[in-house]
Design brief:
Elements lengths: L3 H9 L20 E9 L2 E7 L5 H15 L3 E4 L2 E5 L3 H11 L2 E4 L3
Parallel strand pairs: 1-5
Antiparallel strand pairs: 1-2, 2-4, 3-4
Length: about 110
């Protein structure tokens, strides 16, 4: 008795060992929906940007650009950018110029 996969492969001229699975591609910036919200950290306002579906290095590069343009500090943890201060409007504008779709929370 033959293997059912071999029979199926013969019927459709497919070699089951050479089937490749497509790799997961990085989402384009325009297809990501980012969330910009205000949070309090240690009693001080902080702007949080979340919702990234890309690799950690791309998130770090975006965070660096935002921090330099705003002239403030911040950090990146778990694909989430934390910017010191209430800069929701400014950061939303910059992200939209970069090609991201932004959802505003707590405006």
């Amino acid at each position: 008795m033959e293997d059912w996969k071999a029979k199926l492969g013969q019927h459709f001229n497919i070699d089951p060992e050479n089937i490749s699975v497509p790799e997961e591609k990085e989402k384009a910036p325009g297809k990501q929906f980012l969330r910009v919200e205000l949070d309090k950290r240690n009693g001080k306002p902080a702007t949080i940007v979340s919702g990234f579906d890309c690799d950690e290095q791309m998130v770090k590069d975006i965070a660096k650009e935002l921090k330099v343009k705003c002239g403030v500090g911040g950090s990146v943890r778990d694909s989430e950018i934390l910017i010191q201060g209430d800069l929701r409007v400014k950061i939303t504008g910059m992200l939209e110029k970069m090609g991201h779709k932004v959802k505003r929370i707590n405006f």
